[in-house]
Amino acid sequence: MLPLWGNMLKSAKNILSFQRSPNFVTIFWFLVPFVAVLLEIGRGDSHINNFLIYKNVFWHTLHQQNLYSFYPAEYMDKNHYGPLFSILIAPFALLPNFIGATLWAMLNVWVLFYAVHKLPVSIWGKNIILLICLIETLTAVQNLQFNPMLCSWILLTYVCIKEDKLGLAAMLIVAGTFIKLYGIVGIPFIFFTKDYRKLIAYLILWAIIFFCLPMFISSPEFVTQSYFDWYQSLLEKNIENISSYQSSGMTDISAMGFVKRVTGFYKLPNFYFTIPAGILMLLPLYRLSKWKDIKFQLSYLAQLLIGLVIFSTSAESPTYVIAVTGFGVWYVLNAPKPAKWMYILLIFVLVLTVFSPTDLFPRYLREEFVVKYSLKALPCFIAWLTISFHLLFANFDKNQSNAHQA
Known about the structure:
By secondary structure, the protein is an all-alpha fold.
């Protein structure tokens, strides 16, 4: 991943001073999460459970201990990330918890900021995307989650393919897949490049490299077995997620969870949702004449980011930084003067998806309605259906993005 970090560091100075004067959104973007993370980490190790899980992925790999067993003396819950994560988290695992957790959280904040600023939209559009997804980013980093970085990798996969950096694009796809599977949604971007054979070759090369990389701190046998263990842990986690309706917990916040909890048909198979969703994600690609259109590409990116979350039984509140970023990308394509119904949908997303898990939302409504019926997923589900319709039927040539002109 060194080439990517090198390019990011070279452009960081330009991005942070893109208007040659202090930018409110930039200051707000970094300051608010930084203060919130310091307050959260300062409360003690009991409030950084996710980071303790993450750092021990490295130590358990180093000592060749099962990555997916329960270690109640070290942390609560279990690890659900692939063996490659041990390499990514290694620099932070070697530091004291306070420093390592702070740097990890702020790296996630910065990488997402960088990725948004690499998108082919105006400065105004980038600021709007950042503002829309700020609270969800705050939610994710307060939980010391990996999701903002994963979202960044998906955005940068598209950017790298657009810039003909196919090696970097392949690296991000494989890394995201080998760590949390979600990175695989970058595969359809292969249709946006003529050198698809080269991209496929890079995918195979990086798959071999990333499969072998954790072996340098453990052993081939341990890593191979860990991938089998990971598969089994994901199956068990999926079963836990789809039965979460029994406790009305903050898991399975998905389109499936919403429909099951509202209707009471809890045994409804998920494939009734995932198969049609998969078809709708692939159908826009039949419009070959639109593949080179920037607005079509960004709309498709938005559809993938939202669909990745709302059709996953593993979707939790901190996961929605991915979906809300996708919504932000789509929203700015129709700004600065979108239709009135888009304003309504934006407010719907902000109120029910973004603010509902926070203290700004009435506790009674949150517990008795939002959590109980997975309503956090509803606005993003409506947005996803709308984007899917536009991808299939909109005439992008006559409806160019206003975000470039703002």
